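Lecture notes, unit on protein representations.

Consider one protein chain, 243 amino acids long.
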Amino acid sequence: MITIRRADSLGLAHSDTLTLRCHFAFADYLAPQNEHEGRLRAINLGTIPPQGRYHLGPEANVDIVTWLCSGALQTSNEGFPTETIQSGGLHLLGTGAGVPGMAWQAGADGASFIQFWLLADTEGGSPTQEARPAFPKLEDGGFRIIASGFPEDDPEMAEVIDDGSPVTLSARSRLLHADIPAGEGAAYQTTQGRDLHVLVVRGAITLCGAALAAGDGAMLSQTERVVVMATQEAVVLLTDIAA
């Protein structure tokens, strides 16, 4: 089963000084029929003006993954050093037993971002923070794992984590990225009992016979395999979560 949310049908939530475009209920965007999907709590699209700041209050038992579409963001999370991420970079805040406050400040050119909120499998634990620069593009345009809670995806505690290693989630979920040339495709295979969410960041694709453009999202329930075809050069983010 596939459920499509078009970019022009997304909800609007007001959080701090920002208006977020939301695929699921969030803050003052109330959508009882669309509160979350499995362990995927939220997908929010936001734009911060130059030197603007986005602040959130205390959170616990959720991983907040921020993927930067453009510009630059500096993080300010209580208990952690600041991190600066550039376009294509990724930041993970695993809130664990609780983080008192968190904030993201844009650089001189502003910033646009996509945040994924993934519920942890177990409550508690120490908060964590990780950041990565833009991930190297795969030559075949396929999906690269950029965040994962699966042990087999762990970089095995290497002394130096290279740019292509995924950040570590608290749940058995994955976030994947693909930069697909026009006329080509990317495939992903998972296991039984999983839901897959496809988000088009740029360009245009076809998925299960449906055409999707930038900002559109599609949830595929109880799906083990997905094939995305790019009708224009496309950037796609794929979330693999427990149903």
